[in-house]
Amino acid sequence: MRRFIRTERKKAGLSPGTLVHVGEKKADHVRIRVIDYDQENLEERELQSIDECVPYRDKPTVSWINIDGLHDVDVIEKLGQTFNLHPLVLEDIMNADQRPKMEDYENYIFIICKMLSYDDKEDRLNIEQFSLLLLPGVIISFQEKPGDVFNPVRERMRKGKGRIRKMGMDYLMYALLDAVVDNYFIVLENIGERIEDLEEELIASPGPETLQAIHHLKRELIFLRKSVWPLREAISGLEREELDLIQEKTTVYLRDVYDHTIQVIDTIETYRDMVSGVLDVYLSSVSNKMNEVMKVLTIIATIFMPMTFIAGIYGMNFKHMPELDTNWGYPAVWLVIIVIGVIMLVYFRRKKWL
Amino acid sequence: MRRFIRTERKKAGLSPGTLVHVGEKKADHVRIRVIDYDQENLEERELQSIDECVPYRDKPTVSWINIDGLHDVDVIEKLGQTFNLHPLVLEDIMNADQRPKMEDYENYIFIICKMLSYDDKEDRLNIEQFSLLLLPGVIISFQEKPGDVFNPVRERMRKGKGRIRKMGMDYLMYALLDAVVDNYFIVLENIGERIEDLEEELIASPGPETLQAIHHLKRELIFLRKSVWPLREAISGLEREELDLIQEKTTVYLRDVYDHTIQVIDTIETYRDMVSGVLDVYLSSVSNKMNEVMKVLTIIATIFMPMTFIAGIYGMNFKHMPELDTNWGYPAVWLVIIVIGVIMLVYFRRKKWL
Amino acid sequence: MRRFIRTERKKAGLSPGTLVHVGEKKADHVRIRVIDYDQENLEERELQSIDECVPYRDKPTVSWINIDGLHDVDVIEKLGQTFNLHPLVLEDIMNADQRPKMEDYENYIFIICKMLSYDDKEDRLNIEQFSLLLLPGVIISFQEKPGDVFNPVRERMRKGKGRIRKMGMDYLMYALLDAVVDNYFIVLENIGERIEDLEEELIASPGPETLQAIHHLKRELIFLRKSVWPLREAISGLEREELDLIQEKTTVYLRDVYDHTIQVIDTIETYRDMVSGVLDVYLSSVSNKMNEVMKVLTIIATIFMPMTFIAGIYGMNFKHMPELDTNWGYPAVWLVIIVIGVIMLVYFRRKKWL
Amino acid sequence: MRRFIRTERKKAGLSPGTLVHVGEKKADHVRIRVIDYDQENLEERELQSIDECVPYRDKPTVSWINIDGLHDVDVIEKLGQTFNLHPLVLEDIMNADQRPKMEDYENYIFIICKMLSYDDKEDRLNIEQFSLLLLPGVIISFQEKPGDVFNPVRERMRKGKGRIRKMGMDYLMYALLDAVVDNYFIVLENIGERIEDLEEELIASPGPETLQAIHHLKRELIFLRKSVWPLREAISGLEREELDLIQEKTTVYLRDVYDHTIQVIDTIETYRDMVSGVLDVYLSSVSNKMNEVMKVLTIIATIFMPMTFIAGIYGMNFKHMPELDTNWGYPAVWLVIIVIGVIMLVYFRRKKWL
Amino acid sequence: MRRFIRTERKKAGLSPGTLVHVGEKKADHVRIRVIDYDQENLEERELQSIDECVPYRDKPTVSWINIDGLHDVDVIEKLGQTFNLHPLVLEDIMNADQRPKMEDYENYIFIICKMLSYDDKEDRLNIEQFSLLLLPGVIISFQEKPGDVFNPVRERMRKGKGRIRKMGMDYLMYALLDAVVDNYFIVLENIGERIEDLEEELIASPGPETLQAIHHLKRELIFLRKSVWPLREAISGLEREELDLIQEKTTVYLRDVYDHTIQVIDTIETYRDMVSGVLDVYLSSVSNKMNEVMKVLTIIATIFMPMTFIAGIYGMNFKHMPELDTNWGYPAVWLVIIVIGVIMLVYFRRKKWL
Can you list the pairs that B199-204 forms with residues at least 24 positions away whose Cβ atoms lie under 8 Å? Predict the structure, then answer.
């Protein structure tokens, strides 16, 4: 949980727009890559400093500047000057705990969303902030660390296949958002499998670990929901608000991402319902097992207590106990005991305890 | 649950509009059937290829092209070219995990919904995607596999009875949606019967299987809800958005389907409430049973423990135990024991434990 | 529960507008009664066929045609032709499982609602569909069976007292809806009394029947809510949508019915909260009782087990047990046993178990 | 609970606007008091009949006519004629089970709300209906019984201090509503104290009475919420709907009452959450206590059962039991028993049962 | 809980606008500090009386008048006269139990919010009311006691760094609100840590104190939510309502505070879900532990009861018990007892009770 409001504390009290990196430092140094393309050509290179971005800003081609690593204040500040960005935008970029949102500044659009991945080793959801600036002719994207879900997008750009090279930077923005949302389905599938595993475990051999696992899954779903839910509104804003930077023919694609986001949210809700159901079944099965244990205890106690009582009676040392002296006394006691036992068993069977 | 986000993974990262079949392959080969009619004539045939659709596209009559099987990329691609469809529409058609929706493209309307059936053998809900394109004079529908709920519609078309032959392709669209929604009632009736069975089982002989059945039903209702809920909005859109392709006299029929959809959703909610109620009763009855078991145990223990103690006392081997030598000792002990037993029984009866 | 989607199955697949009676046949034959009135005169008669309705349709007076029994397709069809009704309206009239609604067809208004009554014998809620057509100068109402809540309305019409004879057919519509909604309060009072009874039973002697009764009540409230909730929207539509057939001076009366409907819904919600509360108390009281049983068991076991052990010790047959030979041995054992018992009792009292 | 839909039954079926008193008769006779004032003078008197109201209706001063007791049909009817009120308004005034609401009739405004008080003796919430008519220059208010929360308002009027004498009848209406809402805080404080008491009782000595008290409080909160919730909308309507009878400078005061109402609702919701929390803690503490009881039982049984078994063994009467003849047999048995006991205790301590 | 509607009672019945301090008296005397600045100069001093404020009101520079302590009626009244404030505003300032809100009076804006801090000693949330008046060129702020979260803001003003000295009094208002909301994150982090601690405690050694702690946390979250939730609407009003006193370039900053408020609310909701989850796990672990205790009890009882019975049998004193006289009798009994014990153990292992 500390992952979510981790280091807001560091920032509290500072002047708004002061650049402080909030979040874990996940990358060693900042890496700036640019892909610049139009329908005919594509250039791909790694930049050493923000200054090298200037030509891309002024060229009529579409340029995608991707920055891995958010911890270097100088880089972000320089970028802000170069592209004339609002200080609050820079602050939000450096703060990795933002809520997904879309903001329309007159000359550019600013989008924040979350890249998710499931860390199988630590068995927890990894949440990485991905922010994106849409300027005329330029897209600048920010990631917390190297490694992302955009390789297929890059591949399509390189091959020059598909619409991506023909349409503008707004289509590229769509392609990136689409890649992010598509990736959510992989995380969801992973969680879906774990719910199924849990349900099988529940039938096979539920134990306290099962409860831990249910609880863990429930928490991951809470965090997942928190990361995806606000994205719905952000993408809806992109599609509906008639922004200058987004062409009308792109909105149909944005509607598609919107549909996918809704589907992700729907599935998260379904999973939450299912995990609740699994918890109910777990609790009931614990209760049922206890019930069974109680029955065994009761049957044993109920059968042996009267028998032991009878044996106790004839263990008494009274001088005058006529039964003790008869030959039939001992077998008769056995008979009585067996009869009592049989009656009990019949009674319990009729009560459906056996 | 894997049924729901099964194979999104396959698609993640591909270019938007790339045609990949997502879903189980439920049909061996693609089957294309066409029904072409106006008020006087009706022609019904099976097409070998999409090319044969072209004349129907251009004729003034109403044509219903139905395609069973979504796995063949070539067929869908060809269709897209023939009818000039947006690539995202084709992608959605091939992806059997879509959420019900209605989309208005300038020249055509695209609708996705779910055909439900209850598989009695496997005792689970089957969900098949049904998508529908409404073009001027042509309806194209897509199903995952042969076999559907539209035979009564076909029969009415063949017999030339009713409004269906007199009105346009928008009325046909309505007739198909109406058939889909009407079929939901059959699935609901099935589920309703199972809830009733559960309630009877609950009174007769509840057991751990009852819990499994409740849980199973709960999950089916979650999935059912997920399949039907968004349809409400889709049909409401058809009715209200003043679409060019839908005549005003058809909207009154669409309002009727809309009402039915609301009724289905209402009933699903009612069923969810009822299943929750059944679960509550089940849990309480388990708890009550345990209570009863506890009472028996306590009564037996409480009656026999003092008795056994008394017998134990006179089983001691002290030299000096005056009672042992008396003649009345033994019957007196029996008397004490019986008195204790009676007092206990009276006490329990007053506590309403018996 | 089958009462609610009973026979939709019968209808699924038929052409829309096909007239099939859906619902239990509650009346033997269809009975048509008409009350025709203006400020001066009132005529009341029973019609033999729909044809006799024609004069009332064309007269300037207000006519109320009431039809008991929905099963006769011919009657409804004839009526449809006489008054030029939309086939979907006729279908809805014959289908007794409709959701309450209000529909504005250009020349008439169609309203569906539910008449409720509490069947004390079978101890269940009876739900009867009441539909109403408001045409210029004519009101046609449909009931499933003879017997209704409108006798006071008829009485007021006959006596010529009050506004009802002076105002138009829209006021009559209001009067009928008002009678239906007023009757809900009687059903609610009945349910309110049963909740009170339950609460008293809960204090006096709760048992498994109490749980059954709570569950039963909960279900009746689910169905009641389902029957009343959509009426809110329907009446709100009548009041707000500026319909031609409804005069402005009548809307203030409709606002009154609307307020009553809201009050009914409020009370249903309150009752649901209360029944939930009763269930909580029941479960807690079961749990408390079990707790008490456990305590008795534990006290008995805890007191007698050590005592029996001590008696057991001195029942052993070792040759060398010096205590056995002393005179004080036996009374000493009694002393020890009594001391142990007293210590236990003091301990339990301090733990507040006694 | 019968307090809420008590006597609707009496009314069902009557003509709308028929005057029937619905509710408990709380006052012996109807008492009419009038306060008539402008900035210079104030006259206060008790009227014998409604006829005496006429001069106040026609004077330019502000008059507040307060009527205690709703049971007298004649009085209300006369009042209706004198001030030309709609019959439905009169009906609502006499029916003490109305939902709070605000209705704008062209020439007057009609407001219903609830005066609450906490009856410490019967330990229940008393709900009294307060309705108010705002006519030009006249306010007529209706209470079920003498005694209200308006004495401070009257005092301010008499003293001529503050704004009340300078502003119009709309400000007086505000002052009355403000007094009603301010009084809710006193009821809330009372309930707040009882929640605190409950929490202390929960720690000190929870018992079945605690559960009764929680349940009781929960119900009072349900009724409280039902009484206050709709007032929000009513006051919001007064403030926002630009009514002719309300001056703009008064709306800022109405916004203040509105804020207070929201605060009351907020606090009720908070209290409901808190009572739920208290219930959870109660149930858990019952469960914990049972757990503790179980542990004691198990420890006792687990320690003494093996010991008693060993004693039983050496109580057997076999001829050939070599141990019995040894001198060390008896102390050895004691040793074994003590060792078993110690091992058990260590085991339980390690399991944290002790 | 009394902290929330503590002393409304004191006020109920008074004339609206009557100044009465509602809330705990947290400061000894009222302290008035002013910071007056423009881009070049900054003056900071402590005022002895409200009269000294007058020059600041009339100067073109921005002045921030901060008042610590709300209990002095004279001071607030004087202030009201000096700045011509509405009596209801003064009343709200003195009542420390207000709900956060924003009100637009024509010449000034009035904002109420809550300053939160976590009192580690008493282990509870401290809530202090902070109200703020935005007049042309002047900001007046009110705190219940000295000590606040604005020192970083003051520091930035003194150093003349950043935007704060260049922009108007609306930016100062933003800076203050931002400081308040930023501080919420610190409180949230504190609570987040306690949830983590609870979860660890839950695994290590849950006890009744754990339940108390969960309950305590749940209540703090209820109060936290009540304090923050309405702020959302207040800030949204500031941003959207196109108020004259707020320049357009400031709204982008207000949008930022709004985003932070949403994030705080989101996190509170997440925490509530998490605490609910923790409670579920706690209850299950209690139940699991009980289950384990029951199993031990049952195993012990089930193993020793038959054994003790057998020992009891051969402790009987019948003359004619042939087994007793054999040499193999005693070892045979031991054998039987051991065999029974082993069978039981195997049975329990197969049932997974061991």
Answer: B199/B278, B202/B278, B202/B281, B202/B282, B202/B285
